[in-house]
Design goal:
Protein name: Anthraniloyl-CoA monooxygenase
GO molecular function: FAD binding; FMN binding; monooxygenase activity; NADP binding; NADPH dehydrogenase activity
Shape: globular
Strand content: 15-25%
Number of helices: 27
Organism: Streptomyces melanosporofaciens
CATH topology of one domain: FAD/NAD(P)-binding domain
CATH class of one domain: Alpha Beta
InterPro entries: Aldolase_TIM, FAD-bd, FAD/NAD-bd_sf, OxRdtase_FMN_N, YqjM-like
CATH architecture of one domain: 3-Layer(bba) Sandwich
Pfam families: FAD_binding_3 (PF01494), Oxidored_FMN (PF00724)
């Protein structure tokens, strides 16, 4: 192949070297606009996984890199006058300039043509003159910009300011210096990359940056390569303790906003993007260099494995996109955590450190325990002490007091619609469904949304509480839970609003009923989405009637014996649709600004709270974001939560979306928990109000991690309990926990030990002469370069 590469950074050079190795007949030319020794930034960090791939692909480069690596396992976190060290992580870093020099030498050795200080020819000319054109020209890619109509990029400019700097202080480990200044929280990310220097990245929210006056010397018209020397001098003063008398260096160092780059497509004909041109991930979880070199490896392999370029580029994108998107999800969580770091300034140091380490949700409690058991013990002990508990146990099995209701543990079975009632009456199915979940160990089991009227149902199969027959059937279920388990059971009350009168889920979710339908109402005459029924705008008199239906249903729920009531103000149902500007276009006192949109849901809440027994808690579920432009955001969710807390809510159950079919959620593991985190720290913690996290929480490790980090007080787990009704008890068995937080029903006691499964539990033969002792692997490894030998006269 005749290959043109635009961009001589690590990704472009590594790809050139790999392709030349695979077939020396390839003719490869690289254009780089900068000089060969020009580089911005100081050190680059690699994971063991990436290094394994590099070692397999090109041993010459891998060996040369290995000789230059600074290696360590520790992370040091300096916060509120304390320093904590966490080990067992595993890092390798080197000078970016050294890496480029190695790659340049390797390319020359293999016969790659390199043009430095040279702007690449026009992309369209290259496409007609070469078999393949690779855009490896970084975050400000001209290749991507020239073909934006095809690649369809999105550029998400974030809210913090940061600056790359270097220091001749050789750190022994990864460093986080977190300082509460008079202007707000500032932090430094530092790590060694050689025996002579370290990277030193200063970062802060843009509001803090402006309050500190750093905007005074931020010049858009600064000469290329120039550094903001006045800002560097101030950083040197602010972090004098971190520098410990050492120098701070600049290299094209100016204030930047991180931009997350995403592209709908990465290739077009014989043109393909790699590295930062295709995608970016925030520096707080790793290096863009790492991703670029992984791209290069995958692209070279796919071109070698497929007979035609189109098939190879399609395979490359299919292979890399899931990996990159997973990395970007983690990076998004990490960068948002640092953007909001001021929220956590009140946390006790051990919890703050754990929160920082688990910010991306890639590192969890179990990961940390495997790497540094001593630190995990500190986290468990600190959590128990903060809760006023004498016993150290897995966080999920620590008790919790919700209002006056005592819960044996912090696991909730989420409300899940079953669409299996007849005329709103729950039957044997619901008894088995909810009864099995209660016997499965959860502290609180929630009903599905129980509708307050026939017209308030989602489907004909939804349960209700608008008559005595329904109340008596619910009483049977509640009594079973109380008699056969130590769980509590909660009632979720709601009205479907514009999402009502639809088919059963498995017959066509959100599709209108073909017959036997009923009229739907909403705050405005706006359908949920295309093909959905248009609701009638509810009148003021009807709002009073609906509020009365909520009150009557709540009273029947109290008579049935429910321990807790949750008002459903989420997922686009009636009260949720009043809250959302997407669904509520009213021009009266119930529409417009958020305070007006809150009016009717708060009226219902107050009326229900007055009728619900005072000693039983009442909570609210909200959608924290609508996932659409012009909809509610997490900032609105904070104010919505604040309003319900002011009216007496004992907890806020934080979900998201389902307000409109146009939504575009950012799905992923525990993807909704950052909303709960924000509400807890900005509103709820100060008032003692509980926050419930929900949303793709699928493992007990995730539950423990969220609780220990202080992101929620309780965790609601739904689909996982459908897969395994005894999930909570099994989680206790997996963690070898026995105690009041996970008591097995007496008839099931013999099953508390995990049964053996075929050969997976077989006794294995000895296949090594000597056993490796895990204790031989150091938990704490510091980067302490050997001193230079003293010459002998």
């Amino acid at each position: 192949m005749n290959i043109a590469i635009i961009g001589g950074g690590p990704g472009g050079l590594y790809f050139a070297a790999l392709m030349k190795q695979l077939d020396p007949a390839h003719q490869i030319t690289v254009w780089e606009r900068n000089a060969p020794d020009d580089t911005f930034g100081f050190g680059v960090v690699f994971s063991d996984e990436t290094l394994g791939g590099i070692e397999n692909a090109d041993t010459t480069i891998a060996e040369a890199m290995a000789r230059r690596f600074a290696r360590w396992t520790d992370i040091d976190i300096h916060y509120r006058g304390e320093s904590h060290t966490v080990g067992g992580q595993g890092f390798a870093a080197m000078s970016r300039k050294e890496l480029l020099r190695l790659l340049q030498e390797r390319c020359r050795e293999l016969g790659v043509t390199l043009h430095f200080s040279t702007v690449a020819p026009d992309t369209e000319w290259l496409r007609t003159s070469y078999d393949l054109v690779v855009g490896a020209d970084g975050v400000n890619s001209s290749v991507r910009a020239a073909h934006a109509d095809v690649f369809r990029p999105s550029l998400d400019r974030r809210h913090s300011r940061y600056m790359w700097l270097g220091t001749d202080r050789v750190f022994e480990a990864f460093q986080f210096f977190v300082e509460q200044t008079e202007w707000g929280v500032m932090q430094v990310h530092g790590y060694p990359y050689s025996d002579t220097g370290s990277t030193f990245i200063i970062e802060m929210h843009e509001d803090v940056w402006r309050r500190a006056g750093f905007d005074a010397t931020d010049r858009a018209d600064a000469a290329p390569g120039a550094s903001d020397e006045r800002a560097v001098a101030r950083v040197r003063e602010l972090f004098a303790d971190a520098l410990d008398g050492h120098r701070l260096f600049a290299n094209n160092s100016k204030w930047l906003n991180f931009t997350t780059v995403r592209n709908e497509r990465w290739h077009h004909g014989n043109l393909v993007l790699i590295g930062d041109a295709a995608h970016t991930a925030h520096f707080s979880i790793g290096s863009g260099t790492k991703l670029a070199m992984e791209d290069a490896l995958a692209l070279a392999a796919c071109l070698h494995e497929h007979p035609d370029a189109e098939g190879a580029l399609t395979a490359y994108e299919s292979e890399r996109r899931p990996v990159v998107e997973s990395t970007q999800r983690a990076a998004q969580g990490s960068l948002e955590w640092f953007e909001n770091i001021g929220m956590y300034a009140h946390q006790e140091p051990t919890q703050f450190c754990f929160n920082l380490l688990t910010r991306s949700r890639r590192i969890t409690y179990d990961n940390l325990r495997a790497r540094d058991p001593d630190f995990a013990d500190q986290v468990d002990t600190a959590f128990a002490a903060a809760q006023g508990l004498d016993t150290v146990a897995p966080a999920m099995f620590q008790p919790y007091r919700l209002g006056r209701l005592e819960l044996k543990n912090r696991v909730i079975v989420s409300p899940m619609d079953m669409y299996s009632a007849v005329d709103g009456v729950p039957g044997d199915f619901h008894l088995v469904h909810l009864g099995s979940k209660a016997m499965g160990g959860a502290g609180l089991v929630m009903t599905e949304m129980v509708c307050v009227s026939p017209e308030g149902r989602i489907t004909p199969g939804c349960t209700g509480l608008w008559n005595g027959e329904q109340r008596d059937s619910w009483r049977r279920i509640v009594s079973y839970v109380h008699e056969r388990s130590t769980a509590r059971i909660g009632l979720q009350l709601g009205h479907s609003g514009r999402k009502g009168s639809t088919r059963l889920m498995w017959e066509g979710m959100d599709e209108p009923l073909p017959e036997g339908n009923w009229e739907t109402v909403g705050p405005s005459a706006l359908p949920y989405g295309p093909g959905c029924a248009v609701p009638r705008e509810v009148t003021r008199a009807e709002m009073d009637r609906i509020a009365a239906e909520f009150v009557a249903a709540a009273r029947r729920g109290a008579e049935a014996g429910f321990d807790l009531l949750e008002l459903h103000c989420a997922h686009g149902y009636l009260l949720s649709s009043f809250l959302s500007p997407v669904a509520n276009h009213r021009t009266d006192a119930y529409g417009g600004p958020l305070e007006n949109r809150l009016r009717f849901p708060l009226e219902v809440f107050d009326a229900v709270r007055e009728s619900w027994p005072e000693e039983r808690p009442m909570i609210v579920r909200i959608s924290a974001t609508d996932w659409v432009p012009d909809g509610n955001t997490e900032h609105d969710a904070v104010e919505i939560a604040r309003a319900f807390i002011a009216h007496g809510a004992d907890a806020i159950d934080v979900s998201s979306g389902q307000v409109t079919k146009d939504e575009r959620p950012a799905f992923g593991r525990s993807y909704q928990t950052p909303f709960a985190d924000r509400i807890r720290h900005e509103v709820a913690a100060a008032t003692g109000t509980a926050v419930i996290a929900v949303g793709a929480i699928a493992s007990y490790d995730d539950v423990n991690s969220l609780l220990l980090a202080g992101r929620a007080d309780l965790c609601a787990v739904g689909r996982t309990h459908l897969y395994d009704p005894h999930w909570t008890l099994h989680a206790a068995a997996e963690q070898e926990y026995r105690g009041p937080g996970a008591e097995w029903p007496v008839p099931f006691g013999a099953g508390r030990r995990k049964p053996p499964t075929a050969r997976t539990d077989a006794v294995r033969p000895r296949l090594s002469l000597l056993r490796s002792d895990p204790a031989d692997q150091p938990v704490h490894l510091r980067w302490i370069p050997a001193p230079e030998p003293v010459p002998v006269p």
